[in-house]
Specification:
The complex is a heterodimer of chains A (112) and B (119). Chain A is mainly beta. With 119 residues, chain B is mostly beta strands. Chain B is 0% helix and 51% strand. Chain B contains no helices and eleven strands. The chains are: A mainly beta (112), B mainly beta (119). At the A-B interface, strand 4, strand 5 and strand 10 of A face strand 5 and strand 10 of B.
Chain lengths: 112, 119
């Protein structure tokens, strides 16, 4: 199975400031079709996860523009341009290039 | 409004069985692949099973293969997970999840149902 590793595990953030989370995979997530099969999810406290980014950099419907995804191959980054209080929660990346789909261990984002 | 509502969770002894259900509404269920994803207490997300729109393709995580059976009834807009030979390590919140058409991303999640396996 592809191992997905996130860092940091915990990220204290200041509202209005940028933040970024790293996701690395044990194998390339670049499909032969040219897309990277890497998704980002946010699980807010007490809620179900929600899709933020898919195919490495495509924002899901309704996701604010302050969220962006980048990277290719084995190294990916989720960036929040200006953190808002509602962005707290646990962020997960997930690879889907190879079955089984596997999630990273999560990055907890909290307000300083 | 798109909705996924799971039910059927509960407390069961090791070796027992449970059947989870997921009732969907607000979209054309018969055109979407669906997943089950679970989350053990305090742990990360874990993919459990995928089923294609017509049930032609069904996949399982190694951790549940041979014990869990995923199925769907498109006429009833419902997804099911039959869980047999349950183990303590199957304790988790189980989410019913829609797969984004044409991709593998999971774009709609239910609220989850809790399964506790304990003697």
């Amino acid at each position: 199975d592809i191992v997905v590793t996130q860092s940091p595990l915990y990220l204290p953030v200041t509202p209005g400031e940028p933040a970024s989370i790293s996701c690395r995979s044990s194998q390339s997530l670049l499909h032969s079709n040219g897309y990277n099969y890497l998704d980002w999810y946010l699980q807010k406290p007490g809620q179900s996860p929600q899709l933020l980014i898919y195919l490495g950099s495509t924002r899901a419907s309704g996701v604010p523009a302050r969220f962006s995804g980048s990277g290719s191959g084995t190294d990916f980054t989720l960036k929040i341009s200006r953190v808002e209080a509602e962005d707290v929660g646990v962020y997960y990346c997930m690879q889907a290039v190879q079955s089984p789909p596997t999630f990273g261990g999560g990055t907890k984002v909290d307000i300083k | 409004e798109v909705q996924l509502v799971e039910s059927g969770g509960g407390l069961v002894k090791p070796g027992g069985s449970l059947r989870l259900s997921c009732a969907v509404s607000g979209f054309s269920f018969n055109t979407y692949s669906m997943n089950w994803v679970r989350q053990a207490p305090g742990k990360a997300l874990e993919w459990v099973s995928s089923i294609s729109s017509s049930s032609n393709y069904i996949y399982y995580a190694d951790s549940v293969k041979g014990r869990f059976i995923s199925s769907r009834d498109n006429a009833k807009n419902s997804l099911y997970l039959q869980m047999n030979s349950l183990r303590v390590e199957d304790t988790a919140v189980y989410f019913c999840v829609r797969v984004l058409q044409g991709y593998y991303a999971m774009d709609v999640w239910g609220q989850g149902t809790t399964v506790t396996v304990s003697s």
